[in-house]
């Protein structure tokens, strides 16, 4: 097992190098540089000498490969560079933003699970009755609204019209958390309900369930003890994927609600051409990607020993 | 990543009647959408680009069904025109990713070995790459515009199809009929085209149709962040963004294009779902008789 | 039982906090201010005037003050100084105000100012090349600055936010966005972070009694968030509200809008290396084809004022002093026809020798109004038969430097220090003249401006220069940004200022 994990962690390296190199190259190709941007945003313009001098300070006058080499060497030694915009250590900035993203991840996962698991099971039990149709239809609706549009509607109704909740992150963290959490949970729960319903239905049609029923075991007991357990595989896989993408920061939702997390950091850094921050974001995405794959595999192994470790990953 | 084993015995059987009816209704709806998008230019009541500041920010009414925007342009006409951009660029995007992904996937599944490992590592790379960073870089190099947003999304989306096609190809590879075909001396391209491709086409098609909605939202998302179409061209995502700061003053400016995306995505999602039921009775059975 | 207990505790807590708030309100005046103008992205986080643009924050939030300040007509007035005199071309003698103390307790005298300015030119990026200080003498309250070459604008530069005077003995506490300093202003910063500054009143302020006890400055990165916060009452005053959101507060008695035209100007340069742009009739037609009034009143929702030239009305050499063409689509069409451009193929666009009249309009999105202007101009210029292709890109500098445009629309603060020279030396004859506009007279006049000492003389030259470039149709000026401060109506003493430097002052009061 440990050996397997070690092997998978080794696989992280090429992905990490590849992806950071790619993003490094892309940001350079994209043109426009942080220094010019910085001065421009501040309102007035400075002489070319000052710009050149600042570029030199940041090493932006060096050839591309040298810049990348320096960056990578720095990262290996734990120094991820300094933001062009704030002058802060990129690693510190990142660590500062991460808790907000984690909080949003946890809260939206909880809300999603609390809605999706009961509704999914309920929908499966009552399949093809009107309540099932209703739930499925609602889940289609939830799945078809782009999150930025859902966010706008929630904002319009709850903040602007009703005035119940703050539009953006304010002092009151709990109240600020509601709308972004709901926005994310709506789309995720919609997707989960359908998957959980399918998984539960599949189990319900299996022989052991029919057998247990015949033996007179109560329906609810079968559901909770056997069916749900067997459907865990689906649920856990889904969760791992969602947590992965949420930890990557939901760029649009975080930006709309001014939620000061990793996703908003990425959008801001990209628009400001703050390469070091973009790089740390890209590296983080690579780490999440590999970690999620790894966790899913291990969970599979644990829940379903038939899956051979190191097997297909399709 | 998700381990979905799709029915490999894809000999097409017709689904039940109700599925058939649903499929027909949804296909008609989708066709209507496409038709509207195709003819938008001829059916919009006003010139979608004509500005008239005296009519700026009119609420919806008999003159302007969905109101006007800050330049006094008719929102209804703009939504129609934007539909052309949104729908067709999404279709192009999905076609590109499906074809490229499937092609790569079949090669990987069939050849195995180094080619497989290499292409799969590359697909890993792109799967893990945030599309936003890509979109911005592409916009920077090639300039903004919807075609570049499509390109950016295509680059990060094809691996999904590659993985699907690869998995499906692997299950087909050892099937007896392939052996038979091989023995009868079919060339590899002929084998892939005549036997493998038709047998994996079902699930790929279903995934592609289901992907239309997702991709439309992604594309709109990029436009929403200002990385898609350039003014004065209209696109639903950028229209929502445009109207966002006026949500309190002129809510129709963002709600109307939002509703347009929503309805379109809903139709394509339902179509994809129904198509799956239709092509894959196994799956249908799983979902309950 | 347990529940009841918790409920009781909660109720108690709510009452106590409610009570303490109302008690505090009796004796303490507080003000929470939201701004999009304070952030690391802007380069002005922190209060250290010697670092990048942080001086703006020191000045804006009432911590630091400069030797000279600008009045509403952007003329220089004494502030921490009382008088100045040019002894010769390279020597200026400044008399300082008596009885001013830093918040650290030290008395502000010539020695303290000398230390501060010496550090400024040592560490700041722009100040040394602006002021060209050679060395400084300090004697009591008399400060004598010697420059390496004649620098008539030095008094203006001393009014730039980087010239905020701080106590160097106290030094700079904290770094970057957390830097705190000891200034002479009405407020003292207690806590400084890149997103928030907590201020308390300076009990010993030289300019009299400070009325508000506590001020909190909060940074907002999004205009719509700022709007919402003002509506919910989280903040009582804002700077940098998105221009299309003023309508929500306009005419509402609960709010006061205080606005003023700044020298931030949206303007276009014509590319003289592009063949069609060399035709003056086309250049003139473009300016005549843009409805500046409509753009300012409808698209910018009144947050812009139509511009004739580079400087707003508040300047003596501003809009009123010059003449240019006005919106006249018919006249524009005639001009095009004169040059042989006419719509012969009925596609709605003028053409000549089978070629359509198409111009490349380069601009960039950071300033929200610019893409809007491009989109608007595209429609109005179509009316006169010009096809406008918009290139709205963040990479505009590259395109501009390569001459890859016909019209380049950007915006800049034309008179950051209340002096006209900057605009001409940078944009008209300097490195930012991307359109390669050239007129010998203009170059000569700019040189003359560079050497003129008398303010009247400088104003006259600035007027003459602007008229020349307008007569040549070398540039066109569309709009001056109207900067606004919106507050709850019980907040008094906050005024928008044409140079954007002064926001929280000793005048601030909450009734």
UniProtKB/TrEMBL annotation, chain A:
SUPFAM superfamilies: MetI-like
Keyword line: Cell membrane, Ion transport, Membrane, Nickel, Nickel transport, Transmembrane, Transmembrane helix, Transport
Membrane topology annotation: Multi-pass membrane protein
Residue stretches spanning the membrane: 12-31, 102-125, 137-158, 173-193, 233-258, 278-300
Record keyword Ion transport present: yes
Residue ranges the record marks as coiled coil: none
Chief site of localization: membrane
Signal peptide, first to last residue: none
Localisation: Cell membrane
CDD domains with a match to the protein in the record: TM_PBP2 (cd06261)
Residue intervals of the ABC transmembrane type-1 domain: 98-300
Subunit structure, interactors included: The complex is composed of two ATP-binding proteins (NikD and NikE), two transmembrane proteins (NikB and NikC) and a solute-binding protein (NikA).
Family as reported in the entry's similarity comment: Belongs to the binding-protein-dependent transport system permease family. OppBC subfamily.
Protein name as it appears in the record: Nickel import system permease protein NikB
Species annotation: Blautia caecimuris
Automatic annotation (TrEMBL), chain B:
Sequence ranges assigned to domain ABC transmembrane type-1 in this UniProt record: 87-272
Keyword annotations of the record: Cell membrane, Membrane, Transmembrane, Transmembrane helix, Transport
Subcellular localization: Cell membrane
SUPFAM superfamilies: MetI-like
Keyword Zinc-finger attributed: no
Membrane topology: Multi-pass membrane protein
Pfam families, sorted: BPD_transp_1 (PF00528)
Membrane-spanning parts: 79-104, 125-155, 249-271
Keyword GTP-binding included in the entry's annotation: no
InterPro entries assigned to the protein according to its UniProt record, in alphabetical order: ABC_transport_permease (IPR053385), BP-dependent_transpt_permease (IPR050366), MetI-like (IPR000515), MetI-like_sf (IPR035906)
Family per similarity comment: Belongs to the binding-protein-dependent transport system permease family. OppBC subfamily.
NCBIfam families attached to this UniProt entry: Opp2C
Designated name of the protein: Peptide/nickel transport system permease protein
Record organism: Blautia caecimuris
Automatic annotation (TrEMBL), chain C:
Residues in Solute-binding protein family domain copies: 75-427
Signal found in the keyword field: yes
Spans traversing the lipid bilayer: none
Record has Secreted as a keyword: no
Main location group: membrane
Compartment(s) where it occurs, according to its Swiss-Prot or TrEMBL record: Cell membrane
Assigned keywords, A-Z: Signal
Gene3D superfamilies: Dipeptide-binding Protein, Domain 3, Periplasmic binding protein-like II
InterPro entries referenced in this protein's UniProt entry, alphabetically: Peptide/Ni-bd (IPR030678), SBP_5 (IPR039424), SBP_5_CS (IPR023765), SBP_5_dom (IPR000914)
Residues in the signal sequence: 1-25
One family name in Pfam for this protein: SBP_bac_5
Topology of this chain in the membrane: Lipid-anchor
Protein family membership: Belongs to the bacterial solute-binding protein 5 family.
Protein name, as recorded: Peptide/nickel transport system substrate-binding protein
Species assigned in the record: Blautia caecimuris
Organism taxonomic ancestry: Bacteria, Bacillati, Bacillota, Clostridia, Lachnospirales
């Amino acid at each position: 097992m440990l050996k397997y994990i070690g092997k998978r962690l080794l696989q992280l390296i090429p992905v990490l190098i590849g992806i950071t190199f790619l993003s490094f190259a892309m940001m350079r190709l994209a043109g426009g540089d942080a220094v010019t941007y910085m001065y421009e945003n501040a309102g007035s313009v400075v002489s070319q000498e000052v710009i050149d001098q600042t570029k030199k300070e940041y090493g932006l006058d060096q050839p591309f490969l040298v810049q990348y080499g320096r960056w990578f060497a720095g990262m290996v030694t734990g120094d991820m560079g300094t933001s062009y915009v704030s002058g802060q250590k990129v690693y510190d900035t990142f660590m500062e933003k991460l808790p907000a993203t984690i909080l949003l991840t946890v809260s939206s996962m909880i809300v999603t699970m609390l809605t999706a698991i009961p509704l999914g099971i309920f929908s499966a039990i009552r399949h093809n009755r009107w309540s099932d149709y209703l739930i499925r239809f609602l889940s289609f609706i939830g799945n078809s609204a782009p999150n930025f549009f859902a966010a706008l509607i929630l904002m319009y109704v709850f903040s602007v019209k009703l005035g119940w909740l703050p539009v953006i992150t304010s002092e009151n963290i709990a109240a600020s958390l509601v709308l972004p959490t709901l926005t994310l949970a709506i789309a995720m729960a919609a997707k989960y309900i359908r998957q959980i319903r399918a998984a539960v239905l599949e189990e319900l049609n299996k022989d052991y369930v029919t057998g247990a029923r015949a033996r007179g075991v109560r329906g609810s007991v079968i559901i909770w003890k056997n069916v749900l357990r067997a459907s865990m595989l689906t649920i856990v896989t889904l969760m791992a994927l969602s947590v992965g993408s949420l930890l990557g920061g939901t760029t649009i939702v975080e930006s709309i609600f001014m939620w000061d997390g990793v996703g908003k950091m990425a959008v801001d850094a990209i628009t400001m051409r703050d390469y070091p921050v973009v790089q740390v974001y890209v590296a983080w995405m690579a780490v999440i990607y590999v970690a999620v794959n790894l966790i899913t595999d291990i969970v599979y192994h644990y829940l379903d020993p038939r899956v051979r470790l190191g097997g297909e990953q399709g | 990543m998700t381990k979905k084993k799709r029915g490999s015995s894809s000999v097409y059987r017709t689904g039940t009647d109700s599925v058939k009816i649903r499929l027909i209704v949804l296909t008609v709806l989708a066709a209507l959408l496409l038709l509207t998008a195709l003819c938008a230019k001829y059916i919009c009541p006003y010139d979608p680009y004509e500005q008239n500041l005296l009519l700026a920010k009119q609420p919806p009414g008999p003159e302007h069904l969905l109101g006007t925007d800050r330049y006094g342009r008719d929102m209804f006409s703009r939504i129609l025109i934007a539909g052309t951009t949104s729908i067709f660029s999404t279709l192009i995007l999905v076609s590109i990713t499906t074809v490229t992904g499937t092609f790569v996937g079949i090669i990987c599944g069939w050849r195995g070995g180094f080619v497989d490992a290499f292409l799969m590592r590359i697909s890993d790379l792109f799967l893990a790459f945030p599309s936003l960073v890509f979109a911005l870089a592409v916009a920077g190099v090639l300039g903004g515009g919807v075609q570049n947003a499509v390109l950016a999304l295509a680059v990060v989306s094809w691996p999904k199809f590659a993985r699907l096609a690869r998995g499906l190809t692997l299950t087909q590879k050892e099937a007896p009929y392939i052996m038979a075909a091989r023995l009868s001396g079919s060339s590899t391209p002929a084998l892939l085209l005549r036997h493998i491709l038709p047998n994996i086409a079902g699930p790929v098609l279903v995934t592609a149709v289901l992907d239309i909605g997702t991709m439309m939202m992604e594309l709109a998302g990029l436009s929403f962040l200002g990385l898609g179409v350039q003014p004065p061209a209209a696109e639903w995502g950028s229209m929502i963004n445009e109207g966002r700061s006026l949500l309190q003053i002129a809510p129709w400016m963002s709600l109307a294009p939002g509703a347009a995306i929503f309805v379109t995505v809903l139709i394509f999602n339902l179509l994809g779902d129904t198509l799956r039921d239709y092509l894959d009775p196994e799956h249908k059975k799983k979902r309950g008789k | 039982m347990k529940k009841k207990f918790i409920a009781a505790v909660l109720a108690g807590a709510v009452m106590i906090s409610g009570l303490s708030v109302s008690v505090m309100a009796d004796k303490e005046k507080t003000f929470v201010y939201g701004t999009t103008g304070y952030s690391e992205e802007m380069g002005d986080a922190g209060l250290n005037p010697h670092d990048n643009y942080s001086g703006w924050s020191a000045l804006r939030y009432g911590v630091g003050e400069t030797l000279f300040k600008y009045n509403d007509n952007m003329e220089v007035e004494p502030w921490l100084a009382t008088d100045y005199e040019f002894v010769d071309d390279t020597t200026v003698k400044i008399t300082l105000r008596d009885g001013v103390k830093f918040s650290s307790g030290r008395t502000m005298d010539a020695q303290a100012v000398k230390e501060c300015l010496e550090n400024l030119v040592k560490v700041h990026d722009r100040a040394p090349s602006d002021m060209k200080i050679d060395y400084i003498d300090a004697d009591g309250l008399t400060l004598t600055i010697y420059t390496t070459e004649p620098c008539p604008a030095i008094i203006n530069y001393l009014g730039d936010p980087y010239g905020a005077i701080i106590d160097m003995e106290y030094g700079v506490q904290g770094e970057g966005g957390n830097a705190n300093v000891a200034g002479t202003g009405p407020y003292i910063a207690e806590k400084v972070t890149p997103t928030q500054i907590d201020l308390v009143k300076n009990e010993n302020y030289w300019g009299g009694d400070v009325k508000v006890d506590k001020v909190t400055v909060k940074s907002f990165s999004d205009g719509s968030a700022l709007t919402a916060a003002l509506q919910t009452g989280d903040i009582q005053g804002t700077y940098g509200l998105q221009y299309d959101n003023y309508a929500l507060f306009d005419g509402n008695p609960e709010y006061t809008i205080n606005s003023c035209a700044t020298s931030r100007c949206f303007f276009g340069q014509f590319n003289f290396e592009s063949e069609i742009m060399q035709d003056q009739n086309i250049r003139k037609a473009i300016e005549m084809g843009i409805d500046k009034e409509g753009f300012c009143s409808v698209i910018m929702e009144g947050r812009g004022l139509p511009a004739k030239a580079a400087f707003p009305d508040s300047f003596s050499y501003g809009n009123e002093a010059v003449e240019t063409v006005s919106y006249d689509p018919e006249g524009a069409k005639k001009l095009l026809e004169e040059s042989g451009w006419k719509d012969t193929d009925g596609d709605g666009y003028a053409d000549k020798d089978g070629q359509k009249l198409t111009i490349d309009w380069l601009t960039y999105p950071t300033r929200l109004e610019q893409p809007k202007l491009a989109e608007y101009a595209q429609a109005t210029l179509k009316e006169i038969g010009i096809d406008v292709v918009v290139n709205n890109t963040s990479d505009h500098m590259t395109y501009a430097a390569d001459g890859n445009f016909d019209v380049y629309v950007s915006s800049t603060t034309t008179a950051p220090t209340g002096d006209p020279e900057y605009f001409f030396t940078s944009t008209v004859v300097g490195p930012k003249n991307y359109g390669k506009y050239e007129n010998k007279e203009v170059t000569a006049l700019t040189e003359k401006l560079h050497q003129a000492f008398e303010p009247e003389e400088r104003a006259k030259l600035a007027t003459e220069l602007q008229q020349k470039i307008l007569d040549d149709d070398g540039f066109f000026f569309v709009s001056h940004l109207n900067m606004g401060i919106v507050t709850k109506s019980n907040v008094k003493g906050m005024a928008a200022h044409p140079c954007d430097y002064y926001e929280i002052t000793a005048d601030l009061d909450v009734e």
